[in-house]
Amino acid sequence: MKVLVATQKPFAAVAVNGIREILEAAGHEVVLLEKYPAQEDLVAAVADAEAMIIRSDKVTSEVIAAAPKLRIVVRAGAGFDNVDLAAASARGIVVMNTPGQNSNAVAELAIAMMIFMARTQFTPATGSEVQGKRLGVQAYGNVGRLVGAKARALGMHISALDPFLTDEQIIAGGADPVHSLEELYASSDYLSIHIPALPATIKSIGYDLITRMPKGATLVNTARKEVLDEDGLMRALEERPDLKYVTDVMPDNYAALQEKFGLRVFATPKKMGAQTSEANINAGLAAARQIVDYFATGNTRFQANK
Q1: Where in the chain is the domain with CATH 3.40.50.720?
Q2: pLDDT digits (tens, 9 = 90+) for 132-166
Q3: Where are the beta strands (DSSP E) in 18-129?
């Protein structure tokens, strides 16, 4: 089978070598498309691909239409909102992600961002400590649980909301369960977001939730920028000069936020959650193994478009 590895932001060389070794050992052909300048390059490259590994690359309906032989797409990472699932499903193409492979990297970043904001972005101004503070985790999956574990080690008190988990599962994961977003936001000095961008979650976090947060609270978003109502965030920060926002998914209105609120807001220049060498390698190798397993046994364990 011909496997296209299409990455505008390429994997590390060691990951590429590992991907190639795994796939070629199973008898598959590997084709690399790295640092391509335009979406049209991806459309052209998929013409004879039977499988594809991507990172944040956009597999649109146009890409899928141009790939008559394509049977599987694996997104090396957790999120898969960059793939048109409906178009893939209509063609019978399996779409998978690689959950858990970059979870630790994202969790470490979330904790680092909390401390960065607590210490006033490492300026000489007097900051605060996170020990003893209350951390709310919105979605207690792979990343959320790791954030909770690391925060507990720092002496924070953890609560979590996850509609897909029972109270017993959340408690077993070391957090106190809460049963509404309103309760979670109102009880959290720090709130770490880990939800996907879906029709039900896009712009779901806005003025009403943010202004429920306690005095001096910080909202941390290492998920997707689309889940924030940016106008609502602006309004909340205007009315509540004690609140802070930090993210690795830069808002469209970031320049205005910075101008108005200075050290109360911070966004990284690009999405940084999975930008570690370890996560890069883990996700790439996992994607290659999943493709091998799919063609060998039909395993669709991590299929996103069931």
Answers
A1: 2-101+275-297, 103-267
A2: 999 999 999 999 999 999 999 999 999 999 999 99
A3: 29-34, 51-54, 72-75, 94-97
